[in-house]
Amino acid sequence: MSVLLTENTGDAGDAGGTESSGDLGAAGNTVDTGNTGRADRRPGSGSGSDTDTVLPLTAAQSGMWFAQALDPLSPAQNTAECLRIEGPLDPDLFATALRRVTAETDALRVRVVDTPGGPRQHLAATVELPLTVHDPGDADYTDHTDVTDVTDDTDDTDDPDHTDNTDGADGAEARADAWMRADLAEPCDLAKGPLFRHALFRVGQDRWLWYQRIHHLVMDGYGYSLLVRRTAEIYTALVRGEEPPPRTFGSLADLVAQDDAYRSSAAFEADRAHWAHWAAECGDRPEASRLAGRGALPARTFRRRTAYPEPGTKERLRAVADRTRSTWPDVLIAAQALYTARATDRSEVVLGLPLMGRMGSAALRVPGMVMNVLPLRLDLSPAATFDELVRQVVLRVRELRRHQRYRYEDIRRDLGLLGESRGLVGPLVNVMPFDYGVDFAGAPARARNLSAGPVEDLTVNVYDRADGRGLHVDHDGNPALYDDAELAAHQERFLHLLHRIAGSGADAPLSSYTIATPAEHELVVDEFNRTGRALPPTTLVGPIESRAALTPEATALVYGDTSLTYAGLNERANRLARHLRTLGAGPGAVVAVSVPRSVELVVSLLAVVKAGAAYLPLDPDYPAGRLTYMLQDAAPVCAVVDRAGRLPADAGTPLVVLDGLDVSGYPRIDPARPLTRDHPAYLIYTSGSTGRPKGVVVPHAAIDNRLRWMQDTYRLTAGDRVLQKTPSSFDVSVWEFFWPLRVGATLVVAEPGGHKDPGYLARLIHEQAVTVCHFVPSMLQVFLSEADAGSCGSLRLVFASGEALPRETVNAFGSALPGARLHNLYGPTEAAVDVTYHACVPGAPGPVPIGGPVWNTRLYVLDAALQPCPPGVAGELYLAGRQLADGYLNRPELTACRFVADPFGPPGGRMYRTGDLARWTGRGEVEYLGRTDHQVKLRGQRIELGEIETALAALDGVDGACAVVREDRPGEQRLVGYVTGRADPAALRAALAPVLPEHMVPSAVVALDAFPLGPSGKLERRELPAPVFTGGGGARRPSGPREEALTRLFAQVLEAERVGPDDAFFDLGGTSLLAVRLVARVREEFGTELTIGSLFEAPTPAALAARLDSTGPAASDALGVVLPLRAGGERPALFAIHPAGGIAWCYAGLAARLGRDQPVYGVQARGLTGDEALPRTLHEEAADYVRQIRAVRPHGPYRLLGWSVGGVLAHTVAVLLQEAGEKVELLALLDAFPAEQWRERPAPEEGDALTAVLRMAGFDRTDENTPDDVVATLRRAGSPLAGLGDRTLARIVDIVPNHARMMREHRHRRYEGDLLFFTAAAPRAEDWLDRESWRPHVSGRIVNLDLDCTHPQLLRGPHLDDIAAVLTARTRELDA
Amino acid sequence: MTRQPGPFDPGPEGLDTHLVLENDRGRLSLWPAWGAVPAGWRAVFGPAPHPACLRRVARDGRSAPR
Amino acid sequence: MALTREQIRSDVADSLGENPSDIPFDENLLDHGLDSVRIMALLERWRRDHGVEAAFADLAEQPAIDAWAPLLGVS
Q1: Residue A1362 in domain
Q2: Looking at residue A1367, which CATH number applies to its domain?
Q3: Can you give the CATH number for the domain in which A464 is found?
């Protein structure tokens, strides 16, 4: 049991106050001692508020106040210390001493109250002493704290005097520790007070712990030292029966006055100006160095990690200090600066320097809160030596101290950084040079800090325990920013760094230091890069020739309907190769190839490498000027083209024109060639930052390594089918072309341009049962969301490379293609396609890594000093190993700058500088983090923005130019150019087309009066405005429902304003990805097959409408009885009969899905346009349709389909056709039920006609009451049915009830054959409808497919896919 | 704060910031003057300003494929 | 060995990395970069080498050699 000593403390502590009387301690209180419990603080204790002195807060205290106000319940501002006193102690006298100190210390008798005018501190004349004493008297102290008895695993040398607490040991000390921690975690009520407390624990016969906790608003570290010394002084005097030395503490009022005087002085203004100047000199804007990569508000707790550098460290640091005329804390600061610079990948760091703030001031004698933290900016360059860095620290700290009275909060406020996590300082380095060195009547005391206050980011507290006991280092971290492992890593690295610094000489350049520990160094340089693998010395083409000999009859490639065997391909290529050799092709020579994707392309590429030469792929779509440049630069011995005129003639390159070329005279066997692995295999150009593309030369050894690794990892078999879709000018295509051919698999070649159309790709993959393919991540995302990815079940392996792969795409892949694996690969053209790989796991957290290195390849993440970064720290990615290219053709300077010496691999090796930012994970994979320069990837294509800027700037009327990639809508990246000058931006876009490849022409060019500049005068790319895409708008109104619908679709997909029917898609900011989206929408709405290509050819709504008119229902006969939804195709036509409203447009979507070779005709009701009489019976109507159908197709077999009433009609037509002796081989009904199921229904009113029309468009009726309402709904939905004129709508209003009547009166006859039925299986009101009711009217089976939708939804999107699939399967069976 | 110029980027004008290294195969590499020369390479030019180093490389002709 | 004014200046200069002749006896040493750590180091040095003790606060309050001399027992 313990007792709160409640006696009042007596005198108010005035400045220069009276001597305290000596009798305070013996005022007749009994002290009960006990072991447990906590002090209760009696409310309203003692001090009357009328005796309180009210003072404002000092600026230092205000800072603390506002920090506390951000989170009033946070205990983070409790600071606390524990002194271990070794010797006997008299608790009563101790209490007396404490009371006297409290009486002498204004700051302890303060509480802080908020008022409308701001916070005020109320200084009480007296307060109770909040002291708890835990003294079990002469109990047996199970002395677990004895060094030899310790059962925890703390090493003796780590904590020789166990100022850390014992963990796991059960004892008085552990209990005391627990009590202290609990107390520390209690938030303080600033308005109530007291803001401090004491506790005394007896933890041994002659061993005591004195706990002191004080809120940081009233006390700082220096204040603690004053209090501790004074307490010891008084206690010692009391024990000796002497009078304690006179009080010396100054008053709180003094501090307030001093603070006030400063803040209204000229010095204050001068200091403010100094700091403003300092901020202006900080690069772009002053920013804290963030080890965690981000900032956070101080948390309610902190993580602490304690370490003890080996003995002698301080002495060695002192030696460095002596050498540099500094102090060892300066050396520590320099070390922390070096660490922080490397760990944040910056050359400028801003540390936080805590300052006592009392030098030369009366504050030296006032316990209170005075300390300040100021930003210390240091510049580190790898060229400087460590000693030079220390000198910089000395000089800048000196400078800083001259203006140290200006507070951190003032600087932040001046810079507008107050609030939230916009701090100004990074890690703090707080060096406390020595122990108190006090004793309590002879009993020595050692101090241990329990909390130094809130931790915003990271504070490194270093205590020098003097007397040879060495240093004690606490790394305190904000738990919101650092977990235990991260904090431990920072500390361990820092200590290693100190150790190295202590052992290095004066001349050691900063660049010779690495922040990785030796273990980390070994991990990232060696362990993660153990990829050595001996390989047979083959070239790119050797294995292909071997394979051809092994399996000559296997299918090597498929293109459309053509296929070639291995023997066939090999022979064709051999003949061409021999021809090329006569023209000079051979090892070391280059042959250009400019052939659109086709069988000939594969033959040509193969022929070039068989001749021993390197191939140079030239994209035929490139601007002529660019092609000429590449031809002149590469100087190939000849160029293989498919037709004359494919390439510009200016370069004078001899052409090999395949069209009409006869190579049959050449032998068909493999040509001999003196080809080695060092010879170049291919030469591919990439964007150049100064305006000219540069050619990367890749040798056989490099690409052979890559392909062997790929085969070993992914094991293609002869049964695999690999899709060739990537243009040959991108190096991804290299493995597409050559990998399958080396292992006997089949190469499926997509048609030219097909790689841009995900719908086409899905169909191709499905039709050709492709098992392996590649996607650039942005295209993959579009493929998964817009195309029928689910139908691509044949895929087993999909590779993604070329840009960062978002986690969402991986997850979408997992859902859409659960049977396939997705691998993320990374690599620049300069390293034989890819150098890393990662197997994606859908649902895994975090960014998708690019993975670990492939065979014979090493990855390095290096900091600015070319030292390896430890895992988790970002740096630049360098690549080394067998896959490096030889260099850039004709560019020795560029080659020497990018392919540099490798310090970590075999002697004389090179490494390639990627310019990518990256970091290692702890598991040996690399994460991509961005670029260091202005190279970007747009849909996988590498673009140097500088190349675009150069091209823009070269145009007339342009003063300045810059280019950026913007992502104004998530997932939609657009290339945008900005110019100043008088040129017309639209004209500039047009002017770029002949100069730059299509993917490098900006979506928009924005004219600016001036470029936005940052404070340092540099272009501020962040401030460039988003382009606004507006169309010509007012030019003219769209004419016709189709044009109107398309104009609306354009505006929706592009999110552009005022779009008019003559505005071009790409001028409105359209990109190829958005084109895909538009095409999908058009397909949904109109059912027609619009390809991406046709959008390129007819890019305006008007042109597109005209084009659709020619392939879809033509405007004029859109309402005729026979409506050709697709007239072409060799299969027997399918006739689809109209539903209740009489119009068959609803079948357009179905027609689109049935494939190009399936003709589809809609059969529509008479009377939609004219005034013909309506049929009186279904029989009559059906007979009429039979005549119309036979006019199109005189004889069977016939295929019929109908939805709703159309189904009933289809059945009737089928019966009539059979009765006429014709064959009906397919009768498909979409949720149609025989007449008897409808007989009981009441006659429809006009309402139902409206319903019918809406249902035709695929909607259920909601609140439309008139035909106008219906039209409005259709218009809003962009439905072509909105274009129906009033007359037609009026006719429909008659047609619908007519059909209803005819239906009820109809009698079915029997159809001979099977019925293919599709049920709208979602619950519905008409629950009596049952397809079995057809049984009497059908002789064969009723084969059914349930679709989870309502009746009107049957002919929409996803359900249509299912219906089409079944129909297609059935018609295939019939065709076979 | 922007990233500093990298080890292979030009330094302040006129300062001797870089070297040209050569290996046994005659390849050349730019190198920062403050960096230790890796094994198997030797400095054949510099310390000199970045542009001067590039001119030295250009003169050599063996360092890039032709 | 007793502490002298010149010795004080010499030790201070050494601690600051400057020439003793550059430090006037009455100069505010804060302007030369004197900080608490250096004061404590000097105190330790004088205690060790000369057996002289003084209070940190006393030295820190008026950091000038002339002000320090009497506190360090130098007349």
Answers
A1: yes
A2: 3.40.50.1820
A3: 3.30.559.30
ipTM of the complex: 0.97
Same domain for A386 and A478, yes or no, is yes
Average pLDDT for residues A117-135, to the nearest whole number? 91
Q: Any contact of A with B, at least 3 CB pairs below 8 A?
A: yes
Comparison of pLDDT for A778 and A729, the residue scoring more: A729
Does the pLDDT at position A1030 exceed 90?
Answer: no
What pLDDT sits at residue A933?
A: 79
Structural domain that includes position A355 = 285-433+454-514
Residue A245 structure tokens: 């030395």
- What is the mean pLDDT of the segment spanning A525-529? 97
Burial of A837 (0-12, 13-18, 19+ CB in 10 A): buried
Q: Which residue of chain A comes nearest to C17, CA vs CA?
A: A325
| Residues of chain A above pLDDT 90, percent | 53
- Interval B2-15 mean pLDDT: 84
Residue-range domain boundaries for chain C: 5-71
Report which secondary-structure segment, H or E, holds A1363. Answer: helix A1357-1375
Whole-model pTM? 0.73
CA distance A12 to chain C (A): 24
Q: What is the 3-state secondary structure (H, E, C) of A1263-1318?
A: CCCCHHHHHHHHHHCCCHHHHCCHHHHHHHHHHHHHHHHHHHHCCCCCECCCEEEE
Buried b (16+ CB within 10 A) or exposed e, A1298-1317: bbbbbbbebebeebebbbbb
Give the DSSP H/E element, type plus range, for residue A1179: helix A1178-1192
Q: Which residues of A are catalytic?
A: 1351
pLDDT at A1118: 64
Q: How far is C57 from chain A (nearest CA, A)?
A: 6
Domains in chain B: boundaries:
18-60
Q: Is A769 helix (H, G, I), strand (E, B) or coil?
A: coil
For residue A141, being part of any structural domain is answered with no
Question: CATH assignment of B18-60?
Answer: 3.90.820.10
* Residue A1295 located in a structural domain: yes
Architecture of domain C5-71: Orthogonal Bundle (1.10)
A352 and A406 inside one domain: yes
Note whether residue A1341 is domain-resident.
yes
Task: Find where tokens 């200046």 sit.
Answer: C9
Q: Which residues of B touch A1018 (CB under 8 A)?
A: 2
Close Cβ partners of A350 (under 8 Å, ≥ 6 residues apart): A282, A286, A287, A288, A289, A375, A376, A377, A378, A424, A425, A426
How open is the CA angle A729-A735-A737, to the nearest 5 degrees?
A: 70
Among the partner residues A346, A891, A904, nearest to B64 by beta-carbon distance: A891
Q: Which class for A766: exposed (0-12), middle (13-18), buried (19 or more C-beta within 10 A)?
A: middle
| pLDDT: which is higher, A84 or A1246 | A84
* Of A494, A418, A407, A433, nearest in space to A458 by CA: A494
Compute the average pLDDT of residues A1045-1051: 87
CB contact under 8 A, A894 and B64: yes
> Which pLDDT band holds residue A34 (cuts at 50, 70, 90)?
very low
* pLDDT number for residue A1190: 92
